[in-house]
């Protein structure tokens, strides 16, 4: 048999494998279409590999055997849908995540913000709110929080509720303190929270200029004009079409000379808006809108 040829049995296995992948693709598309049409949440332009893993994880968690069975359960049980939404938008965040970014923000962006009479900041995809509280602390230490308003949005209502409460696991405070100091923190980090049992709650004054709201980057529109938009490690889960849509939303929402902060694996380059920004810090992905 010539090298590279397959036996009939091997060809049948390949055909079966191709058929299974095609069927899986159809099931995923139908599930996402059903969610969009019935609940209004649009995951149709999320990157497939990550989405596929999370959907199968939820298939097993719900005790069903196929994606089609999951679709049936999601469309007929609101509680199942809510569990799936939480699973599809698993929060991954921490206080002063990537400390050098916050240190660079202090040095590069804060001097610009001092020139504004009023500061509006949007944390898009804020998850459970750790970076929102980080920003509030930073602005407080720089004497800017009194004239600032932080808008924190996420599509995940459960994560958003935790962000509103400002209650976090005490076990994470050691890492958060380390991040805070590396980010240029000027005080004792423990001043900003009170420990109670296995949790900490952040001081109420940090929340007074925060507004929390549900917002879906895939389907919702701009709702204000901002001086700064933080959206870090959110668009890595989007395909090119949705990524371009979100960049358009951010460009529309930023004031002239507004600041856009992206995640380490994200960039404004290779988008149709690349010429609309200048780079303030290439490593930390900080850009300023110039047109």
From TrEMBL:
Pfam families: CheR (PF01739), CheR_N (PF03705)
Record-annotated CheR-type methyltransferase domain positions: 16-268
Recorded superkingdom: Bacteria
Any one GO molecular function term: S-adenosylmethionine-dependent methyltransferase activity
InterPro entries reported in the protein's UniProt record: Bact_Chemotaxis_MeTrfase (IPR050903), CheR_C (IPR022642), CheR_MeTrfase (IPR000780), CheR_N (IPR022641), SAM-dependent_MTases_sf (IPR029063)
Protein known as: Chemotaxis protein CheR
The species this protein was found in: Paenibacillus solani
